[in-house]
């Protein structure tokens, strides 16, 4: 759905192909208009949101002026680095446009001028750069982007930091909010904090990622899940896969269990140093490891084109033990990037089957049951 500031609106039915066209037309029509327009935009995972707002930042940047002109805020270190790499690649032929990273581990001495025009960062560090260290003039920022905007608004600490930065910007700064998911209360709040926004949203049935086939295994406990995972590992060709756990404890347990069983896997969790996290992601991108075990740290925005399989070793849930629909969608969206086919497998204890059925009902999809002991059926999945 595209909603203009005149309050007129129309609904766009989006197949994946048409949505890729949509990202390059309707979104870019708004963000590249000669008079800056604010935008709240939603589109499926893997359809070019990052390219769209990076193009906006590059187009608004004056390379002759050596000071920050664009800010992009993302919820994790990994996503900030990934966005920065996209800026560097797309800006390769933009002479003298440079990017800097306001992330943990990148130390800038107080009083040192920041000359790069585009700053990509995470909330805490960018807040320090803006207010504590005062490394640049906030009134000179032309574009402010919130990537994964729903989580940036929905989590209180991120919200406070994001809004504080926004309020220090000039009134004519262009504000761009992007995400694959916007629950109604979050979208309503976004409309309150963004002046006169253009709004592009999707219907729920357009978010199911039809290019990703989804299955589940009914299991008794984590040991049973482990056996099912090993059967899966031995039955289908693993290009690259991401295995999601709900907690660091389960991620570490599974990592050591798979390593002991002779599998080459890597582990990415929040307690690792930023240097180690960057190393693990890069090794995964380079194909040194085919399987990465992680928490929700990698659920949003991480693009590795070779990923064809996502495993939910634990279903994503909220603090109230309700299904976390948004995180489920973001997780499985790591497979099947840019229209490629992907597979998603859910390991579900019998007592948690109602959570899975709620996910089915929410997205109006069928998640097919598989028998983890039926090797012949598992082998046929790839056909």
Description:
The structure is a single chain. The protein is α/β, with parallel strands linked by helices and 383 residues long. Helix content is 38%, strand content 19%. It has 13 helices and 16 strands. The longest helix has 16 residues, at 16-31. It starts with a strand and ends with a helix. The relative contact order is 0.14.
Key terms:
383 residues, alpha/beta, 16 strands, globular
How far apart the termini lie comes to 35 Å
Low-confidence stretches: 1-25
- How helix-rich are the residues, as a percent range? 25-40%
Count all strands and give the number: 16
Gist?
With 383 residues, the protein is of the alpha/beta class. It has helices spanning 16-31, 49-60, 77-90, 123-132, 149-154, 156-167, 184-193, 222-235, 248-260, 274-285, 325-332, 353-363, 375-380; strands spanning 2-3, 9-10, 39-42, 70-73, 99-102, 118-121, 143-147, 174-179, 198-200, 212-219, 240-244, 265-268, 291-294, 307-312, 342-349, 368-370. Helix 1 (16-31) packs parallel to helix 2, helix 2 (49-60) crosses helix 3 and helix 4 (123-132) runs parallel beside helix 6.
